[in-house]
Amino acid sequence: MESQLTKADTREFAVGLGSNLGNRAEWLFQACQWLESVLGEPVAASSVWESEPWGYASPNHYLNQVIIYRSDKDAEDLLAILMKVEKQMGRERRREGGMADRCIDLDLLWVDQEILPPVPEPSSETQLRVPHPRLHLRRFVLEPLAEIRPEWTHPVLGLTVTELLQQCQDQGPVRRVDFEINTLAEIT
Questions:
Q1: Where does residue 75 fall: left (phi above 0), alpha (psi -120 to 50 degrees), or beta otherwise?
Q2: Cα–Cα distance, 187 to 19 (Å, whole number)
Q3: Which is higher by pLDDT, 122 or 147?
Q4: Which range marks the domain in which residue 132 is found?
Q5: What's phi and psi for 153, nearest 5 deg?
Q6: What pLDDT shows up at residue 126?
């Protein structure tokens, strides 16, 4: 059944996807299929980028992508959808927190110009924060985001994605990766 929502009834939001275990391209492809089945067709999708793990050491490099959708769902519902997709795909979150290798990682990067929580407060890793609190620090998010929404302005920092990328101190190597769509085989 097609949605009867108009563009005025919906908000644009960005999802960051990442995988660094197993067939990374297949994990991204499956996540895109799951998300499309729940959220509908994306408005825009970046190229796939490869990067080293951020915030922890691992020999397994990530494939990353940013996808833009439109929805009438609120940020809490969107986060719940992302976490459900991760769980259905086999992602197990570590109880003690911290970062680790994962088959799939889905981050809600931003929802239009919404800021959550509206008043700065100490928060835990499980509390919803929009825009994503580390979005502006991660080159592996900014590079793909700059491909598809360079003009989006961070509602807290007041800078566009282009400006955030220019000021990003993360110098970790990030490179665009090409795929053959029908086989999902990486082209080196």
A1: alpha
A2: 17
A3: 147
A4: 9-187
A5: -105, 125
A6: 54
Flag the least confident range among 27-41, 76-90, 120-134.
Answer: 120-134
Q: Distance between alpha carbon 6 and the CA centroid of its chain, in Å?
A: 25
* Beta-sheet strands, E only, within 7-144: 11-19, 44-45, 48-51, 62-71, 105-111
Q: Among the residues of 54-183, which ranges form H helices?
A: 75-88, 139-148, 161-167
Tokens of 142: 């900014």
Where residue 91 sits, what CATH number does that domain have?
Answer: 3.30.70.560
Residue 139 one-letter amino acid: R
Is 121 among the domain residues?
yes
What's the distance, Cα to Cα, between the start and end of the chain in Å? 41
Q: Which of 118, 119, 142, 139 is nearest to 14 (CA)?
A: 142
Instruction: Name 143's Cβ contacts closer than 8 Å, sequence gap at least 6.
Output: 49, 165, 174, 176
| Domain count of the fold of the chain | 1
Furthest-apart CA atoms within the chain: distance in Å: 47
Residue showing tokens 């919404």: 114
